[in-house]
Specification:
With 114 residues, this protein is mostly helical. It contains three helices and no strands. Helix 1 runs antiparallel to helix 2 and helix 1 runs parallel beside helix 3.
Length: 114
């Protein structure tokens, strides 16, 4: 995979991470007992997503005009592998947050009936 593809992947992953962080902040505001832990995880995701996005933009600028690059192929492959791990973790957290939000909505609907 070339640097431009990896860069685009990192920028997309950074954006997705930011969206997950927002969902977690929202969820934390709805669950008073777990809000500090969820907020801390959300902060970590937000910071990681920001770094991934910046790294992606840096790699995109690096793989440019004259064909020379700062990053070695090995470095790009390591970055690609690390991004895949982050994506997997982000997806897992997003799924758990979605499930928790659905459970909260169901609980609120049940509570409203009584």
């Amino acid at each position: 995979m070339d640097g431009v593809s990896i860069a685009a992947s990192l920028v997309g992953l950074g954006t997705a991470g930011c969206q997950i962080a927002i969902k977690l902040y929202t969820l934390a505001s709805q669950i008073s007992t777990a809000s500090q832990r969820i907020t801390a995880v959300s902060n970590d995701i937000s910071l990681t997503a920001g770094v991934l996005k910046e790294l992606g933009e840096f790699i995109a600028r690096d793989t440019g005009h004259d064909g020379t690059a700062i990053f070695s192929q090995s470095g790009l492959e390591t970055t690609k592998s690390s991004a895949a791990v982050c994506e997997s973790i982000f997806n897992e957290i997003e799924g758990a947050a979605k499930e928790a939000s659905e459970q909260l909505r169901t609980r609120e609907k049940t509570r409203d009936r009584f």
